[in-house]
Amino acid sequence: MGKGFGELAHVRGIIKYSLSPFEQRAFAGAIKYGVPNLFRRFRGQVLRVAPPFIIGYMVYQTVEGRHTQLMRKNPTDFENDE
User: Fold this and answer.
1) Predicted pLDDT of residue 1
2) Which long-range contacts (CB under 8 A, 24 or more apart) does 78-82 make?
3) What is the pTM of this model?
């Protein structure tokens, strides 16, 4: 139906080499380099991300507690009922 995006033009004099995806090691060095990098990146971002979440959670807990308190019936409103 047509050529794909990478095959729109034929250019002479350029040689492309590629490795088959079946010959690549997808997780090469994932444990040795990936885990320490994960901890380093976490340490670098935790002070930027954690405070808004903590403040948001505290606001949520306060609002939920206040809502629960306001939804209770006041026993003094029903003292004179028969």
Assistant:
1) 57
2) none
3) 0.55
Q: Which two tokens stand for residue 18?
A: 């590629």
Tokens at 50, concatenated: 């954690």
- pLDDT by residue (tens digit) across 37-56? 999 999 999 999 999 999 99
Which stretches within the chain are classed as H helix? 35-71
Three-class SS state of 14: coil
Residue 19: DSSP 8-state? -
Longest CA–CA span in the chain (Å) reads 100
User: What pLDDT was estimated at residue 13?
Assistant: 81
Residue type, 46: V
- Phi and psi torsions of 65, nearest 5°: -65, -45
